[in-house]
Design goal:
Blueprint: H1 2-7, E1 11-15, H2 21-30, E2 36-40, H3 52-68, E3 73-76, H4 79-84, H5 86-92, E4 97-99, H6 101-111, E5 116-121, H7 123-128, H8 130-138, E6 143-148, H9 152-157, H10 164-179, E7 184-188, H11 196-203, E8 208-210, H12 212-226, E9 242-246, H13 250-260, E10 268-270
Parallel strand pairs: 1-2, 1-3, 2-9, 3-4, 5-6, 5-7, 7-8, 9-10
């Protein structure tokens, strides 16, 4: 009985704020039997402009909180935290841990035909060079060009997903990637799938967009299967399938979450993350 109970435990998912909801949404779609405990660090967002030490400290606190929720695996649904904190986190926990960078890098390396890959993300993710280093482990000859797009996150959070302002800024950011003739573009921030249409339109049909949120859910399913941790059946009716926690501004989080996840987020609870 105990093994079964363990498999029925939730998956922990965390992000600096709301962006990781795109990862949670993919997990809900692709592994519908799984329960999820989501934490968004809304009090300390954004991570993209913070130092490695700070992001690592925040990530360790969140992982300690998720462990109190008896999670069976943890998804680091934040590109910056995946870039900066994975090594430290792996030392701290003994359950499966997966970030959003590796799955996206792997697919991009396999997809590109002309060997030119672009990555858009926060300053932290682009500055870390993490996507380049993973891609080069798979295909050393691929040319990887990173472009920080700091204005995309506030535009997404304001709900301006399809708006002339977003079009204008995206055109500016993406022009140099178009000029160098990339054929594959990694959406290297979990907010970016929400403006995928805009990015795709500007890049044109010849460029394949890689969505690490989608690829992470695929990889998570494989990882849970490999460890014999896939939940055998859907949660019981009335059972709290998806639980959401934040460090601040729960109402605002809930509104945004409900706009992108159609599974009815009833509430988001604020917790004092600094205490973990």
């Amino acid at each position: 009985m105990e093994a079964l109970e363990y498999r029925e435990r939730p998956v922990g998912v965390f992000d600096s704020g709301v962006g990781g909801l795109t990862v949670a949404r993919e997990i809900m779609r692709q592994i519908p039997n799984e329960k999820i405990v989501y934490f968004g660090d809304t009090a300390r967002v954004p991570y993209g402009s913070k130092s490695r030490e700070t992001v690592t400290r925040f990530s360790e606190q969140i992982v300690r909180f998720l462990q109190t929720q008896q999670v069976k695996a943890i998804v680091v649904a934040c590109n910056t935290a995946s870039a900066y904190a994975m090594d430290a986190l792996e030392k701290e926990i003994d359950i499966p841990l997966i970030g959003v960078v590796k799955p996206g890098a792997k697919v991009a390396a396999e997809t590109t035909k002309n060997g030119r890959v672009g990555v858009i993300g926060t300053e932290g993710t682009i500055g870390s060079g993490i996507y380049s280093s993973y891609i080069h482990q798979i295909r050393p000859e691929v040319q990887v060009t990173g472009k920080a797009c700091p204005l995309f996150v506030p535009l997404v959070e304001e709900g301006l997903w399809e708006d002339p302002v977003t079009d204008e800024i995206a055109s500016r950011y993406l022009s140099e990637l178009i000029d160098i003739g990339i054929d594959t573009l990694i959406l290297g921030c979990t907010h970016y799938p929400l403006i995928r249409k805009t990015v795709g339109r500007i890049m044109g049909d010849g460029v394949t967009l890689v969505n690490p949120a989608y690829e992470t859910a695929v990889e998570l399913k494989a990882l849970l299967s490999e460890h014999n941790l896939l939940s055998p059946s859907p949660p019981a009716l009335g059972e709290n399938r998806y639980r959401f926690y934040v460090s601040d501004a729960a109402e605002k989080f809930k509104r945004f979450a409900n706009s992108i996840i159609k599974y009815g987020i009833l509430s988001a609870k604020t917790i004092p993350i600094e205490e973990y």
